[in-house]
Amino acid sequence: MNTLAKKLNATLGPAADFLSAEGKRMYFPYGGILGQGGEAKGCAINATIGMAFEEDGSPLVMDCFAKNAPLGRKAFLYAGSFGLPALREQWRAMELKKNPSLKGVRASNPVVTNALTHGLRLAAELFADPKDELVTPDLFWDNYELIFQDAVGCKVRHFNTFKKGAFDAAALKAALLAPGAKKILILNFPNNPTGYTATFADAKRIVAAVKAAARAGKKIVVVLDDAYFGLVYEPGVHGESLFADFATLHPNVLAVKLDGTTKEDYVWGLRVGFVTFAFKGATDEQLKALEAKAAGNVRSAISNVSSIGQHLAIAAYADKGYDAQKKQKYNVLRARYDEIRRILKAHPEYDRLFEVMPFNSGYFMCVKPRGVDAEKVRRRLIEAYSTGTIVLSGLIRLAFSTIPKAKLAQLFANVAAAIADLKG
User: Fold this and answer.
1) Which residue from 249, 211, 221, 257 is spatially nearest to 98, judged by alpha carbons?
2) Are 108 and 278 a contacting pair, CB within 8 Å?
3) How many whole angstroms separate alpha carbon 281 and alpha carbon 124?
């Protein structure tokens, strides 16, 4: 094991037990090319870094690229494996503003990832061993299995998502207490595929379930997939990330927050995300050690995240119109959500054809066909009604984020008609 990795593990102390074998081996190469380059920063003559500059010291960039980059040539430079410092500080400030419960909570600075999927892979590699278990609701984004089970080799344990219209915290607790080594729990609110966010009552039960398992001796890494953060449409819903609740919950719990620009800022191709760490009693040095391991993982996989994407984000967050524009886009989705509620209320006959799963937020909602196979409904919708949907875990996922408000009534009419066709 590299000496730098050993030092980081020693700094983490007992918290190193949260790490996978790979996570324990990971380090940021401070003494390598990047470290030496950092020491030379500011020198009058700096012959360290693998970039190219013009004779006047500006980035050596072809005009066919530069003319399409209004942020200037700086956007073509390396961003570094931790991410641009200005963006990291800006995102941390925004996290605190969006999550008042984080005030006074000691957490790491965010490390920039290539959007949230890359953050999931980073978390899997740092924390999940084949002997460990990924714990996730049975209504989940299928990429979790691809990353944790198929790529990393971690076992997967599903638990029932809903019971009587609420999040099934009792099933969660049972899954965490089941035999096995370390647990990696993923909580995704608003949830993909269901479009459900925990209510305040749900949140209390979820946190209590995790705390009970931790008190029973279970080592738990709680991964908060906050991809759709902020898209909440009903009162009584827990509008903050649960990261603050888990950040100081118990010494046996380490919290990992994954978020980013993709869904929050409606920039799906920008690919700029963040990973933030916290655990009870963490020191600044221990949090920096986790940042270093994350940055080392980034360095070993992709070197660094797109500088252009990061500079675009910095410029957007400094724009005076950012808040108003974000609210405007939110209102577009909120209006579609409200229209769906109106449609369902106006058509009680749909209840004979499909069950509406709990939803209150996000991009999606799901229906469960009554008496017919969801996959057959999906195919019937394509063949007879020119309507595309997704089937996950026996449910039909409807992405209202993509459908104009005026077409939503037809969408539900088509779903109902396809099910009726199959029922004969």
Assistant:
1) 257
2) yes
3) 23
395 strand-pairing partners: 392
Question: Is residue 196 a contact partner of residue 360, using CB atoms and an 8 Å limit?
Answer: yes
Beta bridge partners of 113: 273
Are 296 and 111 within 8 A, CB to CB? no
Identify the bridge partners of residue 53 per DSSP, sorted by sequence position: 59
Bridge partner residues of 295 (DSSP) = none
What digits encode the pLDDT tens for the residues 217-243? Answer: 999 999 999 999 999 999 999 999 999
Is 214 within 8 Å of 220 (Cβ atoms)? yes
Angle of the 408-423 helix axis to the 374-385 helix axis, nearest 10: 120
- The neighbour count for residue 5, using CB atoms within 10 Å, is 19
> Tell me: the pLDDT tens digits for 372-424?
999 999 999 999 999 999 998 899 999 999 999 999 999 999 999 999 999 98
Give dist(CA 290, CA 244) in Å, integer.
18
Q: Which of 41-55, 75-89, 372-386 has the lowest mean pLDDT?
A: 41-55
- pTM: predicted TM-score of the whole model, two decimal places: 0.93
Q: Which of these, 33, 35, 77, lies nearest to 53 by C-alpha position?
A: 77
Decide: residue 249, CB within 10 A, 0-12 exposed, 13-18 middle, 19+ buried: buried
Per the listing, tokens 């009587």 go with 164
| Per-position DSSP letters for 201-235, written without gaps between them | HHHHHHHHHHHHHHHTT--EEEEEE-TTTT-B-ST
Query: Do 178 and 213 touch, CB atoms closer than 8 A?
Result: no
Q: Is the dihedral of CA 6, 10, 12, 17 positive or negative?
A: positive
SS3 of 308, please?
helix
DSSP 324-393: HHHHHHHHHHHHHHHHHHHHHHH-GGGGGTEEEPP--BSSEEEEEESSS-HHHHHHHHHHHH----EEET
C-alpha 131: how far from chain center = 24
- Can you tell me which residue has the tokens 């909580």? 187
